[in-house]
Amino acid sequence: MTEIDPTAPVLVTGASGYIASWIVRFLLEDGYTVRGTVRNPDRAEKLTHLNKLSEAHPGKLSLFKADLLDEGSFAEAMDGCQLVIHTASPFLVGRVRDPYEQLVRPALEGTKNVLGTVDATKSVRRVVLTSSVVAICGDNIDMRGKAMFGEDDWNFSSSVDHQPYPYSKLVAERAAWEICAAQNRWDMVTIHPGLVLGPSLTTASASGSHTTMRHFADFSLAVGAPDLEMGVVDVRDVARMHITAGFLPTAHGRYIANAGTRSMLELGQALRAKFGRGYPFPYVTMPKFMIKIGAPVAGLTREFVEQNVGWPLRFDNSRSIAEFGIDYRLPEESVVEHFQQMIDDGLVRGRGKH
Ligand code: NAP
User: Which of 13, 25, 39 to mutate to test the pocket of ligand 1 (most atoms within 8 A of CB)?
Assistant: First the structure.
């Protein structure tokens, strides 16, 4: 049982990110004092939405400069906080030039850096770490022989060379549990979202969520979508789960955050039902052999296609519902609201009436 003083400031790492921005907003709306870290406070376009939140909640949000790879850089922001919500970690999909440097090193060293500072900061009582379903399951094919993945499962198939982003989340979470187990002053709760969709408070995030959504507008799925199932969850539900995980005294261990699994085609169908024919949403599933041929162009390996396309994927979200009382938004609602946000922000244009 860990009681967090609600008057103490809450630290959110990577505060300008897609998910973190919603966490910051909900914390402020709930009346908490928030400290957010950002990598580069000089990049004004990344901070516009946070500055607006700060104006709406005077004196409640302060921003600090910190980099995952800069040891000790989180110390000033963390001092006096009882709850640390660690979201900062790169989420890049598609072609990644140097998977170790761009994904694994910042995730792993960054987590060690942040939790090292937690160890050194006597005020901290709880850490909420944004992990992922990809720390639970590497390839969809790994579900063979089981009905679904649960919180006891661990990704056993990813590496730096195959599925580096899942690997980055796996090694970072493993390191975090090791650091947590070596002491008894603070505890840790990990949140494991599927693909996070839903409206974005920022247009400056490089999150893979936005990369994935752009495929529905850039014609890359116009001739067909891969039969690729993904866990999907709304960004607002994920943000709320982080806050519940932080303040619920009994919260402990790992929580899957997933509304359901959907294929790219099903998400595209939900978009067409709402926005009509003016956009290049997919009509059909593309045969696996064709996806394999085109895989390198799309930044995918044939091994990835072989072990993920056409394989069903299921996650058991019952723990989050029972303990956190989450009433998940449907993926169809999240994907539609995400696309609407992209239209409103001028990020996509239709081909005609919609
Ligand atoms: P995002 O918008 O790109 O947020 C990532 C954050 O990490 C950004 O604030 C980014 O800062 C920060 N960051 C990256 N490298 C950093 C570094 N070296 N030093 C300091 N900060 C650094 O992506 P997101 O989707 O919100 O992801 C947030 C977290 O959720 C990540 O841990 C991700 O693995 C996890 N997650 C995401 C999903 C999803 O579908 N979106 C699903 C499961 C888990 P900059 O803005 O300066 O780059």
Answer: 39
